[in-house]
């Protein structure tokens, strides 16, 4: 998608299981590749940055295999990379480019490292200078001090001593430390100036120790890798959830009610960004923490307050604080963030530009940003609604953290457009689905033909003020579009192409295809039969998946259809499976047809329902079955109103905020 429109939202609550940490994932992969033995890596993050590292390791001769889910097995080289000549494309993955540069410089081979244009704008001179002090032969293929790079074989000094500036990027020191055991004779790294992002260096040291290399250090000024140290596989390692990603969800809870709980990081985390929770507490949020979870909620009866914070210990999560500042009284000042300038984009400049689009007053400097929001003095139960500029289109600069941070702006009660939302694939491909699950709960309703699921779902949505998705209508629309275009209903590839670009809209109870009313046309016998054929193609279902998920907008969605709870919205907090005897369903269908002035035979209808149930239950794609976590509602002896009331009562029990106005 070129953009994603987020509807106004005022409340966030729920739970989110975090993806693996990018920083830990790529460190584990490189350490496993250089170690003796085979390493099982559990819960590895699957994202663009990790894919670039995996591709590079494969090209460099390291065998790895994906097991189940996010579990991988890596066979180490027991030292330097076995392949001595390679060309590597590393996209915009700094956590792959910098450490690989150092490891390859000490591998006595001939390599070329390139990336996307933005990577070629990200400085690497400090790392190259440090490696050259050890004797490495590294040449710039473009602008001096920036990628792309060429590395040639060169003798490395035994027991060398190198210096590196601490204020440039912690990734340079991390890269040096991880590569130095390949030297075998040990080496010492001296840090010049103030070391930024110390918690990331702490992560590096702890993970190296897991692989048998213990670095000796004198504070944060000097690090010594003893001679004779080699990486050895610890067997199995587990990737923590990403603490930086946790910040967006915790912030949502702090500014929009909550509570929101993130699972995968907590009190025992080795990541510095867990201290984001302390920053929220300082702003007045209610925060609780366990060994592997953190929970945040808005201040009781008050508003968030501005803070002045040195963010050296959590530069990535500090970006989230800049957006949280929109919801706070006073001016929030974030300092010691010079590293923002050399990330995926110049984040200080980008943040200032986009915050101003929302009406914020912003001051920026070389290593700080100060943010305040006019209109904090205005009264109101939800004060953040009063001053945000509506309909802002947020540019994301191909920077995943810009997209995720500014999703929070919709909690100001205004619509927000996020341009290029797919940039979150760098670290968190499912981010927007997880975020919207907190703002817009889904009620998934399914059941056999004539069970009343469509009628019940539509009425529940109306009573709750939720959006409504009739997924069956989408498949009928694909069938109708195919019939009108002369596309055969057994041509799965052509049908999938139609589904990808389907010009469908649901407006005021009307169903539109390419702007024309299609409500009656999709109920024809040809469309009904065609929809069943169309829905059997996995490629069509995959093409409609994103479209269906896009209906999830605040304040919530009632989704009716076969795989709503199992595939499209597996995280739906309430799933209902309607059931009724075939006889009861036949009587209902008979009455509907008679009321419409159509002739009908109840015995024929009953036989048709039995046959359809059998087909639907046996189909290979989205078979008719109750999800394990769905609640069963037998409507045989119920009226429609009674069934709707039953569902609404379950909503009150599970989602009290959503049902508050029903």
How are the SSEs ordered, and which strands pair?
Layout: E1 3-6, E2 12-17, H1 22-34, E3 38-42, H2 48-59, E4 64-66, E5 72-75, E6 85-89, H3 94-105, E7 110-114, H4 125-133, E8 137-140, E9 149-152, E10 161-165, H5 170-179, E11 187-192, H6 198-210, E12 216-218, E13 222-225, E14 236-238, H7 243-255, E15 257-263, H8 276-282, E16 286-290, E17 293-297, E18 304-305, E19 308-310, H9 315-324, E20 328-329, E21 332-335, H10 347-357, E22 361-364, E23 368-372, E24 392-394, H11 400-407, E25 416-419, H12 431-439, E26 442-446, H13 453-464, E27 467-470, H14 471-485, H15 492-500, E28 504-507, E29 510-513, E30 516-517, H16 525-534, H17 538-549, E31 557-560, H18 564-568, E32 574-579, H19 582-595, H20 602-618, E33 631-634, H21 640-654
Parallel strand pairs: 2-15, 3-14, 6-7, 10-11, 18-20, 19-21, 24-25, 26-31, 26-32, 27-31, 32-33
Antiparallel strand pairs: 1-25, 3-5, 4-5, 7-9, 8-9, 11-13, 12-13, 15-17, 16-17, 21-23, 22-23, 28-29, 29-30
Key phrases:
33 strands, 662 residues, elongated, four-stranded mixed sheet, alpha/beta, five-stranded parallel sheet, 21 helices, UDP-n-acetylglucosamine1-carboxyvinyl-transferase, Chain, 4 domains, Rossmann fold
Question: Can you put this structure into words, describing what you see?
Answer:
The structure is a single chain. 36% of the residues lie in helices and 21% in strands. The protein has 4 domains: 3-18 and 240-438, Enolpyruvate transferase domain (UDP-n-acetylglucosamine1-carboxyvinyl-transferase, Chain), CATH 3.65.10; 22-238, Enolpyruvate transferase domain (UDP-n-acetylglucosamine1-carboxyvinyl-transferase, Chain, Alpha-beta prism), CATH 3.65.10; 440-466 and 555-662, Rossmann fold; 469-544, 3-Layer(aba) Sandwich (Rossmann fold), CATH 3.40.50. The chain is elongated, with a radius of gyration of 28 Å. Residues 377-386 have low confidence and may be disordered. Strand 22 (361-364) and strand 23 (368-372) form a beta hairpin. It has 21 helices and 33 strands. The strands form 9 sheets. A 5-stranded parallel sheet has the order 27-31-26-32-33. A 4-stranded mixed sheet has the order 2-15-17-16. With 662 residues, it is of the alpha/beta class. The longest helix is centred in the C-terminal third of the chain and has 17 residues, at 602-618.
């Amino acid at each position: 998608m070129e953009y994603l429109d987020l509807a106004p939202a005022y409340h966030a609550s729920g739970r989110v299981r975090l993806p693996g940490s990018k920083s830990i994932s790529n460190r584990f992969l490189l350490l496993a590749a250089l170690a003796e033995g085979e390493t099982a890596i559990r819960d590895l993050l699957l994202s663009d940055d990790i894919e670039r590292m995996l591709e590079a390791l494969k090209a460099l001769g390291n065998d790895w295999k994906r097991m189940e889910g996010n579990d991988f097995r890596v066979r180490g080289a027991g030292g330097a990379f076995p392949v001595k000549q390679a060309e590597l494309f590393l996209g915009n993955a700094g956590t792959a480019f910098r450490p690989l540069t150092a490891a390859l410089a000490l591998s006595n081979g001939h390599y070329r490292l390139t990336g996307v244009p933005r990577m070629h704008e990200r400085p690497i001179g400090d790392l190259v200078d440090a490696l050259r002090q050890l004797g490495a032969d590294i040449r710039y293929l473009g602008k001096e001090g920036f990628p792309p790079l060429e590395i040639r074989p060169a003798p490395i000094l035994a027991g060398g001593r190198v210096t590196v500036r601490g204020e440039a990027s912690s990734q340079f020191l991390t890269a040096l430390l991880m590569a130095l055991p390949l030297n075998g004779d040990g080496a010492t790294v001296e840090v010049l100036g103030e070391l930024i992002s110390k918690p990331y260096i702490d992560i590096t040291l702890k993970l190296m120790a897991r692989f048998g290399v213990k670095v000796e250090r004198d504070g944060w000024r000097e690090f010594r890798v003893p001679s004779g140290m080699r990486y050895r596989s610890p067997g199995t390692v587990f990737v923590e959830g990403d603490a930086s990603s946790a910040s967006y969800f915790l912030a949502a809870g702090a500014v929009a009610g909550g509570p929101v709980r993130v699972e995968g990081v907590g009190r025992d985390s080795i990541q510095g960004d867990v201290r984001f929770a302390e920053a929220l507490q300082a702003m007045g949020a209610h925060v609780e923490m366990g060994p592997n979870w953190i929970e945040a909620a808005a201040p009781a009866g008050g508003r968030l307050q501005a803070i002045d914070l040195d963010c050296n210990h959590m530069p990535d999560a500090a970006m989230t604080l800049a957006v949280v500042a929109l919801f706070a009284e006073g001016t929030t000042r974030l300092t010691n963030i010079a590293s923002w300038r050399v990330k995926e984009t110049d984040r200080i400049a980008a943040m200032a530009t986009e915050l101003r689009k929302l009406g914020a007053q912003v001051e920026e400097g070389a290593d700080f940003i100060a943010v305040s929001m006019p209109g904090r003095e205005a009264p109101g139960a939800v004060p953040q609604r009063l001053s945000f500029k509506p309909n802002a289109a947020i540019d994301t600069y191909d920077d995943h953290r810009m997209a995720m941070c500014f999703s929070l702006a919709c909690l100001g009660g205004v619509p927000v457009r996020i341009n290029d939302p797919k940039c979150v694939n760098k670290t968190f491909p499912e981010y927007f689905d997880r975020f919207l699950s907190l703002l817009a709960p889904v009620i998934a309703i399914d059941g056999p033909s004539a069970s009343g699921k469509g009628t019940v779902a539509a009425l529940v949505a109306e009573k709750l003020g939720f959006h409504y998705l009739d997924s069956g209508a989408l498949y009928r629309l694909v069938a109708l579009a195919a019939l009108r275009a002369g596309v055969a209903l057994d041509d799965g590839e052509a049908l999938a192409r139609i589904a990808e670009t389907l010009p469908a809209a649901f407006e005021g109870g009307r169903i539109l295809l390419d702007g024309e009313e299609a409500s009656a046309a999709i109920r024809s016998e040809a469309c009904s039969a065609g929809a069943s054929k169309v829905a059997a193609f996995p490629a069509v279902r995959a093409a409609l998946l994103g479209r269906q998920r896009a209906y999830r907008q605040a304040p919530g969605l009632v989704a009716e259809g076969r795989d709503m709870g199992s595939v499209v919205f597996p995280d739906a907090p309430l799933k209902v499976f309607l059931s009724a005897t075939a006889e009861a369903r036949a009587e209902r269908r008979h009455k509907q047809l008679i009321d419409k002035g159509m002739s009908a035979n109840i015995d024929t209808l009953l036989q048709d329902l039995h046959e359809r149930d059998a087909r639907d239950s046996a189909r290979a794609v989205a078979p008719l079955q109750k999800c394990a976590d769905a609640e069963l509602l037998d409507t045989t002896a119920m009226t429609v109103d009674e069934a709707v009331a039953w569902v609404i009562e379950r909503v009150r029990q599970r989602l009290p905020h959503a049902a508050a106005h029903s």
